[in-house]
Hints:
- The protein is of the alpha/beta class.
- It folds into two domains: about 1-30 and about 120-220, Rossmann fold (3-Layer(aba) Sandwich), CATH 3.40.50.300; about 35-120, Rossmann fold, CATH 3.40.50.300.
- It has ten helices and eight strands.
- Strand 3 (about 65-70) and strand 4 (about 70-75) form a beta hairpin.
- Helix 2 packs across helix 5 (about 85-95).
- About 45% of the residues are buried.
- The site of 2'-deoxycytidine-5'-monophosphate has 14 residues, from helix 2, helix 5 and helix 9.
- It is found in: Cytoplasm.
- Its EC number is 2.7.4.25.
Amino acid sequence: xxxxxxTIDGPAGSGKxxxxxxxxxxxxxxxxxxxxxxxxxxxxxxxxxADLSDGPGLAALAxxxxxxxDGASIDGEPVAEPDLRTPEVSAAASKxxxxxxxxGVLLPVQRAAAEAARERGGAVVEGxxxxxxxxxxxxxxxxxxxxxxxxxxxxxxxxxxxAELDRIREAISRRDRQDSEREVSPLRPAEDAVVLDTTALxxxxxxxxxxxxxxxxxxxxxxxxxxxxxxxxxx
Length: 235
Ligand code: DC
């Protein structure tokens, strides 16, 4: 029986990764972080000294990236998480992700990883355009928001760089602009997404809200009209 597909989208620092990891754990399904694929493509571009605005070049590099629940790989070699999380890679990932060719290459990679996870019991998939573009037929779509100031504080705390709050705030607003103003797959909630403003909520509050939504889905069937029907199967 196929499992549930939950999408969690939102801007940098909105809590997607922390929420997705915990929700996946509580539901007993896989957590897929699609940002890792964009970060791996950006890392590869930096390593190769590629021009970050060269569409065909970036698409060719992206075709060497794969994604699974453990993270991203380049040429089949898993990339260590810390290598994907540097400020340089974060900035480059946001930059390369405006490119339509690169997005076109990474789209089937993300869908295949989500489908494989769903076959194995379900997945919580996080990113920017998962509910709108990658998995528009997902069972439950969540879009997380938070004030930019609060997001900068969370990022600073999370990375132990409290002294760099100003720089982090600036980097976040630059990424927000880039992610939401790009032409292809801009960051925005799907029409059928549940939008949660997490500014004043604790992580555990947000996790509970998402789990409640998943539980509603299990109890009443699929209120979002996914043509595949209730992903949990009939009781
Ligand atoms: O979620 P993250 O911060 O790891 O994502 C890194 C960058 O990748 C982000 O700035 C935008 C891009 N991205 C995207 O365009 N679409 C996705 N589904 C996931 C990430």
